[in-house]
Write the structure tokens for this entry.
Amino acid sequence: MILLILVILLIGVLLFQTFAYRDVKQIINNENYSLFPASEESINHLSKFIQLKTVTYNDFSEIDMAEHRKVEGFFRENFPLSSNTLNLTKLNDFAYIFCWEGRDTTKKPVLFMAHFDVVPVQDEGWDFPPFCGEVKDGNILGRGTLDTKNSLLGILEASEKLIADGFTPESTIYFAFGGDEEVMGLQGAGNIVKYFQEQNICFEWLLDEGAIIAENMISMTDKPLALIGIAEKGFANVRLIAHGVPGHASMPPDHTASGLIARAVYRIENNPFPVQLTKTVRRFLKSLIPHVSFSLALVFSNLWLFAPIVKLIFKKSPSTAAMVRTTQAVTILKGSKKDNILPDRAEAIVNVRILPGQTKTKILKRMRSVVNDPLISVEFMNENDASNPVSESSSKESGYIKIKNTVNKVYPEGIVSPFLVTATTDSRHYKDITENIYRFVPMVLTGDDLKKIHGFNESISIENYTLIINFFTELMKTI
């Protein structure tokens, strides 16, 4: 009898929690907002900006600085109101700041971020020249259209339009544009942050790249998810090195340097980091409860009981597994330069994305323990590039609320959800001068679209670019 009563009570608690969370409805936009179309001029601006080959490399001597130095002229020529009214400041060829002074200078300012550098392109595999900037079949083509020349120009198009309309924000707005985000952002974002610190400028909140509107990417719901990044994983490249005695491959030792590295890689891949449900992921799941099946809603509403089941579900897919564990991807292997020569040195590079709650020091210690081989050194490839996770920002502060309300206005069909960004952004440099960092660009993308970022045939639809410009325009009006 007692057991039966306990079971009934348990079922009652589970159902009560589920119905309570499912009853939470997203605020519906009743303004009947109509997107204003992206003008031919704004489309032409992005087309021309894509044609600037602002590619960055880890070896800065490989960067075409002539292309980078065209950026300032591009800003001043194509956005004259913003360049003058907002007092464009150039710190170096990788760092630009715009300051739009607000009516109330006693309030903390707000910061919008983007970067104009892009990753290198492979010579083959594209259906069009990577830097053509061509407009074709409703799309703008080329490297940077998704990452992140689109949001950078969306910000400037919005400010140019608002200035022309006579608008002045209540709080001061800054724009910070970096030119080396793809290679850790030390010259761009790093110097911009130093400038703000020297000027004693801190921000109420900032908005950078990082998350998007995901369409048909999460099987739990068929609705598009407007994912606002409120936390970000840390980053490190870890190098494994083994040494050996060079010689002819016809007389090998029991284990070559390459063999030792292969064994270490095997151990690493067979010992993944444990799965954890962080605060951010729990909030993400909670936001889905009104929009998933009742059975999933029951699970998500009662994670105190069903967390092990959720962990199993998330482990099945690389995209969801990245949200619940520190990932370790072996990306580079090096050994002998010739097939019949024993290597005197072999190495592997492991790209690690660190889950909030862990640190770069702890993950290195764990990887050394897993490799467990005195013949192999396990060290950061560059400790200055390694970064700890960025702590979670509030989803109840004004910045998040303004972003959420703006999404509801310009894209009301999207379900706004807090999200853990599994990649690395320039915004991590700003953690000492603001408590609230958000990461979002309003592009409606599918899984196939995401593959184009850093991949082949990168392009953006004019429809998405229109959404970006509208979003930043309406968001700025609230500041």
